[in-house]
Fold these 4 entries.
Entry 1:
Amino acid sequence: MNKIIATIIATSAIAFAIPAQAYTGQELAKNAKVTIQEARAIALKAHPGKITDEELENEKGGSGLRYSFDIKHAHAKTQEVGVDAMSGKVLENDVEGPNPD
């Protein structure tokens, strides 16, 4: 029984430590020059913390194709960081508004 519990705990810890492979808008990735892994690194450099949500979307500004990350740091408010999927440029780095996407 203890081995089963230990396995469940270890599996859960790994699941939360590794970001999910799927993200919203993944079907748009074929049009992006910047990969999700590169965009994550850029976003976390702009605002260190833990990514709680990520998506690739068509949105005004930059090339029109943007990775959007919600990043939480300690007890601070959630920060939304947008990375252009073509250039890797940070397009947005603001506190998440009252109407999160």
Entry 2:
Amino acid sequence: MPYWAKTPMDRHQVVFFPPTLDDSIEADHPVRLFWEVLKG
């Protein structure tokens, strides 16, 4: 199988942290409103 077809990580691998900080914050969390105000 070609290299590009391999997944970067086993899909059953447990990760301790989400891939990004944005993924760890819920969509309706109040900090999102704070971010919108700050970014202008």
Entry 3:
Amino acid sequence: MLRLLLVLVGLLFVPQLVMAEVYEEDFTNLGLTGTERGIYTVLIFIIAYGFVMAEEFTGLRKSKPVILAAGIIWAHAAILAQDAGVSVEQLHEAFEYNLAEFAALMLFLLVAMTYINAMAERNVFEALRSWMIRKQFSYKQLFWVTGIITFFLSAVADNLTSALLVGAVVMAVGKGNDKFTAIGLVNLVVAANAGGAFSPFGDITTLMVWQAGYAEFFDFFALFIPSIVNYIVPAFFMYQAVPDEQPAASNEEAVMLKPGAIQVCVLFLLTIVTAVSFKQFLHLPPFMGMMVGLSVLMIYGYSINKLYSDESFDIFDKVRDAEWDTLFFFFGVVFAVGGLGYIGYLELLSGAMYDGLGDTTANIFVGIISAIVDNIPVMFAVLNMNLEMDLYQWLLVTLTAGTGGSLLSVGSAAGVALMGTSKHKYTFFSHMKWTPVIALGYFASIFVHYLVNG
């Protein structure tokens, strides 16, 4: 964190390099990083992100400060543009570029979240949780079963949903054994972040890289083996500390799937296929395919209500229950980082990191930053630096940004959520105890990526 702040503070006092740098999108950044207003916008962003990082302690939702910061940053950017003689049309072009980026990703995520909520309402996840509890695994068996399920589940669902679902199992069977609960939840955080790195649907960062066109859908599966290594290495060491005991017998009853549960799962898979097909064959944004899938789910929900008189399946309830705090946080991040980029700070940051350190070192550093700062703004900043990197490097930064958050409990949504629900069984320091072996897995996965894909 200190190194990141030093970089940011250093950039505040770098004089204006140019008056206008041309972006690939044919609008210009202002190159006004040395102005008082420019410095003020960076400070606003740092303060807002301080509130984001303190969410666990303040209870202030992370979306609120970043949306405010985005508005303030763009207000100052507009004033700077006017002072520099930039036309209103050029200003709007820069602003609307960020709007298009957010709209495409927001619609995609909204459909994915709606499907996840629909599957949860049909008891898909509860049935899985019930099954794992009733199987009466030993603690050592449960360690691997929960980790592997989380790894693969997070490739389809997001890491937050996967960690919370399987985390409920770990906390249920680990009741009375705090040592297993703590290790088991660290295991889930690492598995969830690693599993999301090799699939465009597994993490927002991979989705952003895919939609930006820097890698095709099937390119991400080249990260499958590095992702396995990222998880297996720390899991092997943590497994040695798992108690060799049997949990107390459970009287958990089987949870029955509601009508249409399997069909909703199948529709979700078909929606993913549709999204990929729209991008690969029609050259349209993937969110359009997702919206088509949402319409099919709406129609199927209507048929459930007609076929089963005692069932109430309202798709708009599932839309309402989407993670709106995450979606609005994403809005704030896109526009705050976009505003800083328009003023010229991403150009400077790109020079400091990628020109100064080189692509490989900078991309590894991105993952370390992601352990402290959420990987969404980090990856969005990287994408908007207009870097000229090959596929190997784009996959590398996807891997590091996705898995770097495992280094600390606050580095990912999965870790923060489990800290909140574990009733102090899983804490910052219980996770940090395993940071050295998690770091070993992090660097091992980078090395394996080099061997397999380099």
Entry 4:
Amino acid sequence: MEKNGIVSATLAEIYLEQGYLEKAIAIYDQLLAKEPENDSYRVRLSSLKKTLKEKSRSPLFKRVLRNKNR
């Protein structure tokens, strides 16, 4: 959960714009847990997880993720 308690699709999209794909996925996971019937969250989360999987195959992306996690 976010430290400040704010969890929203808008926050997830801001994370995406800043390049924090994993944080955006975590937010959508939380949103979907709160609203399991929300199909738009489910579709977006699925899309983001697919993007992460595809990008994780790239050596450059792995290097960028390592640097962001430091």
